[in-house]
Amino acid sequence: MAIVPNEPVLALRGISKRFGAVQALTDIHLEVHAGEVVALVGDNGAGKSTLVKAIAGVGPADEGVIEWEGRPVQVSRPHDAQELGIATVYQDLALCDNIDVVGNLFLGREIRRAGVLDEVEMERRSRELLQTLSIRIPSVRIPIASLSGGQRQTVAIARSMLGEPKLVILDEPTAALGVEQTAQVLDLVERLRERGLAVVLISHNMADVKAVADRVAVLRLGRNNGTFDVKTTSQEEIISAITGATDNAVTRRKARSAEAAK
């Protein structure tokens, strides 16, 4: 099914999730388009991780509709998300320190010929993939444990690209990274956008959000609390929506615009 111009790759309509007596998400709406980076932000307990798990099929929503390229879909398990073209890179990266880069990239999807691992082909494809994404590492045969935090993060993101996804979810990709390593990861996020992918970036770092995101979706106490255009919104307004300094930052902006138009 072809994507209609301006139609989102992913659209969430009224997503809700409950854990016993705790209402984790309530009537969440979110749209992500191809070639766009949407930052998902919010304080601890805002529902970011729960929402990501619902999209990734790890913790399916109780209510609401997930639309993929304009049609309703069921995402009941991780395999469903992967089949659609949704790749998720979690904060723990799920890399094996004692295995080299090639082994990590193809972990669980190894290439075999006559029942034997085709190391030559996997190495060739690894080099090609890293070159395409402009990822620089000393060697594809170096153990993951020998790489920096930023290099590990880029390898984890590169691994998600093997399935040729249309949407990539990055969970706190720059957490605990230094300035130079953070720059490497943010550069890669921009390259994903340039390749036409939709990207959801979960982050607490407003500098990172302002650097690469096109739009910012704020969650507060499991509910939407505004979606903002990064170019036209100040950092203070976004933080206000995150902390709940106003009932709803979007309402405040609209009221201010209306007052200025009088």
UniProtKB/TrEMBL annotation:
InterPro entries: AAA+_ATPase (IPR003593), ABC_carbohydrate_import_ATPase (IPR050107), ABC_transporter-like_ATP-bd (IPR003439), P-loop_NTPase (IPR027417). Gene3D superfamilies: P-loop containing nucleotide triphosphate hydrolases (3.40.50.300). SUPFAM superfamilies: P-loop containing nucleoside triphosphate hydrolases (SSF52540). This is Putative ABC transporter ATP-binding protein. PROSITE patterns: ABC_TRANSPORTER_2. Residues 10-246 form the ABC transporter domain. It holds the Pfam family ABC_tran. It comes from the Bacteria. The keyword Nucleotide-binding applies. The keyword ATP-binding applies. The lineage of its organism: Bacteria, Bacillati, Actinomycetota, Actinomycetes, Kitasatosporales. GO terms for molecular function: ATP binding; ATP hydrolysis activity. Keywords: ATP-binding, Nucleotide-binding.
